[in-house]
Amino acid sequence: MNARNISYILGTLVLFLGLTMLLPLSCSLYYREGDAGAFLYSIAITFCIGALFYFLFRPVDVKISLTHKEGFLIVATGWLLAAAFGSLPYMIHGVLPHFSDAFFESISGFTTTGATVITNIGDLPHGILLWRSLTQWLGGMGIIILSIAILPLLGVGGMQLYKAELPSPVKDKITPRIAETARTLWIVYIIISIVEFIMLLTGGMDVFNALCHTFTTMATGGFSTGDASIAQFHSAYIDGIITFFMMAAGINFMLHYSLITGNFRAVLENSELRLYIGIILAAVIIITINLKQNSLYEAGGYLRYASFQVVSIMTTTGFTTANFDAWPSLSKIILLVLMFVGGSAGSTGGGIKCLRILLILKHSYQELYRLVHPHAVTAVKLGKRIVYPETMASIWGFFLLYLMMTIVASIILTMLGLDMMTAFSSVAATIGNVGPGFGGVNPSTTYGEIPCLGKWILSFCMLAGRLEIYTVIILLIPEFWKK
After folding, report:
1. pTM score, two decimals?
2. pLDDT digits over 35-50, tens only?
3. Is 102 exposed, middle or buried (0-12, 13-18, 19+ CB in 10 A)?
């Protein structure tokens, strides 16, 4: 592996991260709440280290050719460095003086998980609140570019299928088209963000809250500016707007591009989108009926709270308007299942993803069909395209690794003293990048009571879940480091 090229690219990433801190610094200077110094020091440290690597390892040849191994290492290390440097404002200001807590909060932001260890969030300075939201917005865009433009080139987890039903400007080799894809996705991401920002302003939110919640909605992140999350606004209109944009953020962003460019056929014929919407509608109907049967809310509130929480959990956003841990068992088990399902491939959502679920169901049906018709020649198809056996093997491998990591991490957390529900739901909520869970990590509590080792395990779960598991696990295989 070419250590010089890797160091140069990572230095560029750190340099860019330092520049992004200028926005919360400006906010700090405007509100004068004493956190400007933390951002000044953080920018100085981040910018200097990034600039050092950028100029020290800058290649003579402008064109950089990367191998698959280098790609995996850059992706995983880049997210870790973002989380490490992103934790500086929390530590320097003293909000989270311990590195374990600060790193947990930072990686939760960049992986768009939304799990927090901070209590009394509303008492934080505006600059720190904006930084929390900004990390999620950056991480959300980062994962879209990663999943659509980068990881398909590495052949990770069947992610080539992200392009299966859509025309994509990316070919299966590293070309300038990656930059074109990234630029297109940035434009779509920013346009939708601007629309949501304006609509939140019309709903009575102030500029600061509208900006923060736009950042965290589009990233399906879930960080809010108060402990009560979206419930603090007591507005059905705001609930509705955020529900709509959470749904939008959970859809493949190449579909948004198709919609904007008038390619409606690609949207209407997308089988993953139909499954995504179908699951949401089914879950909303069942939970609405279940809440009404238990008379938990006033008439008219059942659909409002059910739809918000279903979309929030399904898209792995993690916003809350109610403590769903107090809901009936049927509603809770449905939400727990939705944590594993997640959003669409190529979206900011986490989880297993609807595309994989769809293909697993198709492949399972095919195996049952073969039992009835053993001599039949069949193939799993996505739209009109055949899904090859090696791709299905990759998807099943991802699915099994996902479940194994969930089980092993849950067992370790129970060994640390957590009860079974808290341990299992905290792992499900972090590996699925959801945020709040059940038991000791329900919407009315934080992850602050999790032991230090437990926080590091959950941090690993967040990273592995965000980077589609293979990208992280492959670094632990000895063969990866052999020449």
Report:
1. 0.91
2. 999 999 999 999 999 9
3. buried
